[in-house]
Every structure is written in structure tokens, then in C-alpha cells.
Amino acid sequence: MNNHNYDxxxxxxxxxxxxxxxxxxxxxxxxxxVIERDRELGGILQQCIHNGFGLxxxxxxxxxxxxxxxxxxxxxxxxEIEIMLDTMVLEVSEDKLVLAVNPEVGILKIQAxxxxxxxxxxxRTRGAIRTPGWRPAGVFTAGAAQRMVNMxxxxxxxxxxxxxxxxxxxxxxxxxxxxxxxxxAVLEIMPYSNGLTRNIVQCLEDFNIPLHLAHTIVAIQxxxxxxxxxxxxxxxxxRPIPGTEFELECxxxxxxxGLIPENEISEEVGxxxxxxxxxxxxxxxxxxxxxxxxxxGNVVHVHDLVDFVSEEGEIAGKYAALYAxxxxxxxxxxxxxxGENAIRTVVPQKIVLDDTSIDAVRLFMRVGKPExxxxxxxxxxxxxxxxxxxxxxxxxxxxxELDIPVDKFRDAGxxxxxxxxxxxxA
Length: 426
What we know:
This protein is an alpha/beta fold. The protein has helices spanning 15-26, 64-76, 126-129, 142-152, 167-178, 197-204, 264-269, 306-324; strands at residues 2-11, 32-35, 51-53, 62-63, 81-84, 88-92, 97-102, 106-117, 121-123, 139-141, 159-163, 182-188, 211-213, 215-221, 228-233, 246-249, 252-255, 259-261, 273-274, 279-280, 293-295, 333-339, 343-347, 350-353, 360-367, 371-380, 385-394, 400-405, 415-422. The strands form eight sheets. Strands 1, 2, 5, 6, 7, 8 and 21 form a seven-stranded mixed β-sheet that branches. The chain has a five-stranded parallel β-sheet with strand order 10-17-11-12-13. Strands 24-22-29-26-27 form a five-stranded mixed β-sheet, with no helix packed on it.
């Protein structure tokens, strides 16, 4: 068995993992390892050949592979950062021993001083949403179809129906149309879209692709190959309304019904998971509930923009490097962050006050449903207002960011509440 020792081990070679590796190197880590189970670095970015990446990070509009290549080049310039491709992590113990397998060298035992989880997300499947009907060929998740088209060069079908209005599904509606396929419709069970507004406009409206809100699929037809779907309108409880059914002919069904942070390894170690985000509970340094274990990117919560994924990776890489060097304080004051009213999720869930705390804390928030004229307030335990933000429109599919100087939390008490209220006209 091969035994190795590293200061920082990063599980996942996507945008968060690459940013974490580069940041760990800049902050003094001597030996860094990035473990990636795919055949190349970059993660999901390699199949996202559309543009729109990097406007915040590089002040340029890049494609997904173009953005990934920037970070790959930055990482490859430093010999302190080692890469293991085609390598699957099987287990991580609480003493930071990583067990992995590689087809070339077999089983690997890797001892780390700090571990960063950057495994990203997986897609919710047909089984998770329990769509009734036959089980024919031609039913794919939107991400699988995206990889098939953009990286493997195959078209999954010529007449396509898309269930769910997540960003990948919207982008695939445009992509398949450009490849000559006919996208019959996009169906969304909620009464609002779950994608970015720009994707609704650029991917559906610009190509005259119908979007049916408050609709779902109640049956899939076809024996060996899918031949069509039965759709129906849903009520406020998301139950199909009898008598509203209609048929759509198709030879391909794409599912864009949500992403789930990939946290099996994190849970096995004992990291506490936030039931609302399905990701680890972290502080603003991106340290989890177990000291020495950090997490960043979509494994913590699903992001809209890769630029913020990289930002989180850099934070996790910095503090993992400091932890590996024994610089991170072992005792500190912790403040819990709670979300109320329209605010469904908040990350980070804890604020740490110590000498190494970063100057500002960026809170990432999502609302549970579309809201207009919303005021987001951060208040302390004594109900003093720490920060506010006015939003003309807030949507579940679009992240809300709020930067707050860390000093403002020092008199907050044991917790802060992120709440919301409607703006009142003067």
C-alpha cells in the first residue's frame, strides 16, 4: 500500500478545488494534493462551453473551459501542488487519513494535516422525483446530456422535452436548438422559474421555446425508447389537477430538477450538515464542525456564479494552510447565523471572532419564493441592526450577497438573525 503525507489534501479538482490549492500555496502550505476522480481537472466547467464566466474574477467574459484553464495554469506553475487524476476517494477518517484508489498504483493511504472538501454537486434523478410511467431509453439528466453533446459529440434526441427550469436545463434548451433539435417545451412544477433571469431570456424567449409554469410530467410513454410524455397543471400543493392533462411527443426527456451537494464522505467523517442547504455547516473561514476539515463551492451550497465558487475556494485554501501550519487559533468566540421570514438559507452559518478573522464577512442568502421590494436585515441578539440591503426583486434562483465588516459582529451576542420585511413606501 502506498503511503503519503501532505499539508493540505483537497478532494475535488473543480473550480473550488483549484482555487483552494492555489490559495493554500500562497499562504504557506508546502505540500498540497488535489484528488480528482475524472480524467481531467476543471470539474463541471469542462462541459460548460457557453460564455458568461469570469466577469467578477477576471473582469472578462470567458467560456467554462477557458475559466478552468486559467486556474489549471496557475496551479501547474507551482511544483508544491500535486495532482492525482482518475483517483477515487473511498474514505476519510477523523484523524485526516484519506483512503483512495487509483488504477495505476492501486490503494493509497494519504495522511493530511488539513482536508478541504470541494466535491461539488450531483443531479437529482428521475428516481428522486418519482415520475411515473415506463422506463425507456432517452431519459437523461440535463448535465449528463450536456456532457454528451459538448464533450462526447452525441445528440441525445431530436424532439426534446425538458422537465425543470434549472440553469443547466435552460442552457441545454438553447444548445440543443442550435444543434438542430426541436425543444417542445420546458415544464416547471413551481409557479416561478428556478433559473437566472438572463438564462430565461437568452435560452427560452430568444428561441421561442414555451415555458409552462406550475406544470409537471405525470407519465412517460414508450417501451424501448421514449415516445412522449403526459403533462398536467398542478395546484398550490404541487399535485396534478385532473382534467388538465395534455400530451407532448418526444424522443428525449431531460431532467433539470435540482442539484444535491455531494456530501457522503463529509457525513461519514461526522461533519454536521445543514438540512436547508444539504451542505456542511461552516464558518466564514469555511471550516466545518470538525477542526481541520474545510469545505468550499457547491459542496457547501449551490452557487449561481463560478466566480463566487472560486472565492470560497480561496478562503478555504488560506485557512486550511494556516491550520496545517498550526497558526489558526484553537479557541475562539462563535456566533450562530440564523435565517428567518423570506430568507430560506444563509451561508456561512457561523461567524468566528479571532485574530485571524478576515476583514469582512460575505453572507450568501436565498429566498424561499419570489419577493418584491424586500429589505434584508441582519440583527444581533439584542435586536440592534448590523446591516441592511434593499432588493427590488429577490428570486430563489438568484443568490443574494451582503458584505459586513467582521467588527460589526463583536457586540452582536451569541447569534445574529438574517430576516426580511417588505419595504414600505414613504
